[in-house]
Design a protein that fits this description.
The complex is a heterodimer of chains A (162) and B (198).
Chain A (H helix, E strand, L loop, with lengths): L1 H26 L1 H5 L29 E9 L10 E6 L12 E5 L5 E6 L11 E5 L7 E3 L10 E3 L2 E3 L3
Chain B lengths: L8 H18 L9 H24 L8 H29 L1 H8 L6 H21 L1 H4 L3 H24 L7 H22 L5
Helix pairs in contact in B: 1-2, 1-8, 2-3, 2-8, 3-4, 3-5, 5-7, 7-8
Classes of the chains: A alpha/beta (162), B mainly alpha (198).
């Protein structure tokens, strides 16, 4: 009787531990491998105009928005993904259509989009970026420039399947 | 302590303290890339900060050549102007970028200066409401004074935090100097009211 109980308890513990680790492994593959999905930032979608066209550059250029786009979990670079960009620049407010544009990632999952100089507005120099296409879940970013006179800004995306 | 602000120099000091940040803002390169409404909203904020410098001095009757009755009357008018400045400030920013202002008003903005700004706005509205309802409330004068002064001190503290955290058109040093003076006159004004005495 007693021996039976102990063995059942051992079985439950072993089974439970197996279920927990197995479940966690399936549930959080991204955490396990270090590429957890990028979360949208607060205020990231402010003044967003959906469907910004892919452009050679926004306006006259002089400033570079750069970054990488990877897949959650294994971190594989994602090619051909559209990243939309907008900001308050020397050529317009965030709301102005000419302040918006998009670019596609290359085979290394990297993107580079030239745009007018971002300048401080609404308290700090910041940019807005969006991944908003069907393949992966939508992400809105609002990175802040530590140096408002810098001529580039980097923002990386790790996307999870929609 | 009593006569720090009593001399004629105070007029010069006030003019310099408010004037330099305004000149800085008026010549800021950032203005070239802002719409007139955004520029007006910014200046309304700067004027509001400037009015906070004289408001405690008027409350304490500390400005040279302004008698106590005129001082209190000017304190009320300055308070009303402050409300208008804040309304123009918020409305102008709303027109410039509605989602940013809605986020700020709902306390879900990513920037801490927005939180301080909105707290200062509500504190100011509260202090003004107390002033408007002073007769109807029938509070003991000291109780009313303590409540109004507490709100006023909160408005000054949050406004200074709001202004200092912003990368805007005022020069960093002239803005910091004005903020220090605003805090100083508030402390002196509150000290003069002797709110701890029964």
């Amino acid at each position: 009787m007693t021996r039976n109980l102990i063995s059942r308890r051992a079985a439950l513990i072993t089974g439970g531990a197996f279920l927990m680790t197995g479940f966690a492994g399936l549930r959080f593959p991204a955490l396990a491998q270090g590429f957890s999905p990028t979360q949208s930032m607060r205020g990231g979608s402010n003044n967003y105009i959906p469907g910004a066209p892919v452009v050679e550059r926004i306006g006259g250029g002089g400033f570079w928005m750069t970054g990488t786009v990877r897949r959650a979990g294994d971190g594989a670079p994602l090619a051909g993904q559209r990243i939309q960009v907008w900001a308050h620049t020397t050529e317009g407010h965030e709301r102005d259509p000419q302040s918006h544009g998009a670019t596609l990632t290359d085979e290394n999952g990297e993107y580079r989009l030239e745009m007018p100089q971002i300048i401080p507005a609404f308290g700090q120099a910041h940019g807005h970026l969006a991944y908003d296409d069907p393949a992966f879940k939508t992400v809105f970013l609002r990175p802040v420039m530590t140096d408002p006179t810098a001529t580039s800004l980097n923002a990386d995306f790790i996307l999870q399947t929609a | 302590m009593k006569d720090i602000f009593a001399g004629r120099l105070i007029w010069v000091a006030i003019a310099i303290a408010i004037g330099i940040p305004i000149v800085h803002a008026a010549t800021s390169p950032l203005l070239a890339w802002r719409s007139p409404i955004y520029i007006a909203a910014g200046f309304a904020g700067i004027i509001g900060l400037g009015l906070l410098l004289v408001q405690p001095l008027l409350a304490a009757g500390k400005i040279d050549r302004i008698g106590p009755i005129l001082s209190k009357r000017l304190h009320r008018w300055t308070g009303a102007t402050l409300i208008i400045a804040v309304v123009v400030h918020v409305a102008g920013l709303w027109i410039t970028s509605p989602p940013d202002v809605i986020d700020a008003l709902l306390f879900r903005s990513p920037t801490s200066f927005s939180v301080w700004g909105v707290l200062a706005m509500w504190g100011l509205f509260g202090a003004a409401l107390l002033a408007a309802l002073r007769r109807t409330l029938h509070w003991r004068p000291l109780t009313w004074r303590r409540a109004h002064s507490t709100l006023a001190a909160a408005v000054v503290g949050s406004t200074v935090a709001h202004a200092m955290l912003i990368d805007g058109t005022m020069g960093d040093w002239s803005k910091a100097a004005l903020c220090v003076l605003v805090v100083l006159t508030t402390v002196v004004g509150l000290f003069n009211l002797q709110l701890w005495k029964r």
